[in-house]
Amino acid sequence: MNPYERLMAVLEGRKEDTDRLPVWCSTRTSTLDGMKKFEAFWPEAHKDPKKMARLAASVYELTGNENMSVPFDMALEAEALGAPCEYFEGKIKWISVKKFIATDIYEMDIPEHPSEFVERGRIPVCVEAIKTLKKKYGGKVPVIGIVNCPLTSVSSYLIEPVEFHKNLIRDPERIHRIYKTLNPYYAAVANAFKEAGADVIVFTEEGASLNNISPKHFHEFVKPHLTELISMTKPPRVLHICGSLISKELEVITSMIDCGAEAITIEKKTSMSEARKIADEHRPGYVIGGNIDPYNVIHGSSIEVIRDRVKRVIEEGTDMVCPGCDYWIETPTEHIRAFVNAAVEYGTPPRWKKIKTNLRSSTRSNL
Amino acid sequence: MAEKEKILDRLRQAVILGETEECAKAAQDAIDAGIEPLKAITEGLAKGMEVVGEKFENKEYFLPEMLLSSEAMYASLDLLLPLLKTDEAETKEKIILGTVEGDIHDIGKNIVKAMLIAAGFQVIDLGKDVPASKFIEKASEEKAGIIAMSTMMTPSLMSMKDVEDQLEKKGLKGKVKTIIGGGTATEQWKSRIGSDAYGKDSVEAVNKVKTLVEEIKAAVKLIEKRRKKKRKK
């Protein structure tokens, strides 16, 4: 079974067919080592489809990490709506925004039709890179397109975040309007990626965690609009939210599941065992991935600790071994290799095969 | 309830509920009723912010609620601060605050600022995308003992290290204490770059700053004691 078949089986509800847990990164994957070995440095790799494809494949080539994803930044969609981006030419830095240009959708540069939107900015670069990756790796390694959802995208790159967040309370209509207007455009990006050959779409909405907004606001704004956005796209899809998602008063994990993606991925601020328990009560067997700390553990800890954390997260019930966020770009290749190898070792056979046997014996004893 | 107490309560409530206009109105009423501006700040606004901090810790309040409360407090402070007697303003401990270079997200920083002011510190806000050199220049110029740095983005974590490196170069390490915070900062990052404290949220940031101020005061006392001893000899 190859990485493509393994991940697709898990995301298509055929967990039983797999030989072990998939190990991949549901967010952004690029490392300095990869940039050096494949001569695909930022910022060129953001803009040149050949370099983008080379860098996307680099972590797989170097470590066996089981996916390749584009883009490497979170500004893609916002830039296509007019956000002025800083690429830091000659340096290796994350793309950032020079200034916030909007207060509402009226100041964003929105084309008439979503089909025009996917021709803008670097979206065609990603589409081209996906085609290249698909040609070379299709059917062997899953090719993934990442879409940064409207709340995070707009409040990080288009509208001043302080003003944006005040309006969750002061002008909720504005927030609904932003989501409602932009959803078809963001869905068009996902669909363009899919058409180019992406096997999976990951939706990231990092700004929607309980580190930022209340569970009440998650229900009021995030849940209905993400459900709509995801419904406009084709499976399999993964929804990723960083930060804490456990709330005793008002459930958030179940709402995230109800958004309609085939799986969710979480980071270390959300406990895997708690998420597993909540998910299994809500929808038994629902696919969850996560939640190894990419900075402190994979980048900053010893091989021993990395292996121990992977073992632990599998015991806690993850279905897919993933870092909770992007690989930190300075992560040594051997650390990611150790992370992948540990998942292969501890993730064989997958947990559900063990559960199945347990279930059979417990049903028998009940009878 | 006496008239003055009623006004103080209105200030507290307006901060807690994040009502900007009401908070400014209450501040004006406080001034008109002859309430000392310092009292309106410490017993009205600051008490309100204390409740906001508690609500944040109890997960009743999140970013949007905190931002509205801060905004309400600032609206009131705009009226009250200019009326403070100069000696009242000067005796306050100074904190240099800013979002580090490469990051224009100041959402967390603004909340910390509000909480620091409410806790009685004088905050010199350098804004966002602040170069390392500016933090240090301003700290020397204002004779401030503490630099507080924030970032939401992983990439700009390195800018925090720049500040520490420059402090080291100028021989100011230890004399000027630093505290870091924000979405991507961690206790580990604090240790790695040699910062003095890390605040995981605005409430913890204020507590850690208080500890740093105590440390600075204790160090100053120790130095004075030694000087006196030397003189005696």
Structural class given helices, strands, pairing of chain B? alpha/beta
Give the H and E element order of chain B: HHHHHEHEHEHEHEH
| Oligomerization status of the protein chains | heterodimer
Determine Rg of chain A (CA atoms, Å): 20 Å
- Tell the overall outline of chain B: globular
Largest sheet of chain B: 5 strands, parallel
Run of helices and strands of chain A: HHHHEHEEHHEHHHEHEHEHEHHEHH
- Backbone CA Rg of chain B: 19 Å
Question: Biggest β-sheet of chain A: count, sense, barrel?
Answer: 7 strands, parallel
Number of strands of chain A: 9
- Name the helicity range of chain B: 55-70%
- Quick check: average pLDDT of chain B? 90
Low-confidence stretches of chain B: none
Strand content of chain A: 5-15%
Shape of chain A: globular
Q: What is the distance, rounded to the nearest whole angstrom, between the alpha carbons of the first and last residues of chain A?
A: 37 Å
Q: List how many beta strands of chain B DSSP finds.
A: 5
Which structural class should the secondary elements of chain A be placed in?
alpha/beta
Fraction of helical residues of chain A: 40-55%
Strand order of the largest sheet of chain B: 2-1-3-4-5
The average pLDDT value of chain A, as a whole number, equals 94
Question: Can you characterise this structure?
Answer:
The complex is a heterodimer of chains A (367) and B (233). By secondary structure, chain A is α/β, with parallel strands linked by helices. In chain A, 50% of the residues lie in helices and 10% in strands. Chain A contains 17 helices and 9 strands. Chain A has helices at residues 3-11, 32-37, 44-47, 49-63, 76-80, 114-117, 123-137, 150-157, 161-170, 172-196, 215-231, 253-258, 272-282, 294-299, 303-315, 333-346, 351-366, and strands spanning 68-70, 85-86, 96-97, 143-148, 200-204, 237-241, 263-266, 287-292, 320-323. In chain A, strands 1-4-5-6-7-8-9 form a 7-stranded parallel sheet. A two-stranded antiparallel ribbon of chain A has the order 2-3. In chain A, α9 crosses α10 (172-196) and α15 (303-315) runs parallel beside α16 (333-346). The two termini of chain A are 37 Å apart. The termini of chain B are far apart. Chain B is an alpha/beta fold and 233 residues long. Chain B is globular. Chain B has helices at residues 3-17, 20-32, 37-57, 63-80, 86-90, 107-118, 132-142, 157-169, 187-193, 202-232; strands at 94-99, 122-125, 146-150, 177-181, 197-199. Chain B is 63% helix and 10% strand. The mean pLDDT of chain B is 90. Chain B is built from 10 helices and 5 strands. The interface between A and B is medium-sized, with 27 and 23 residues.
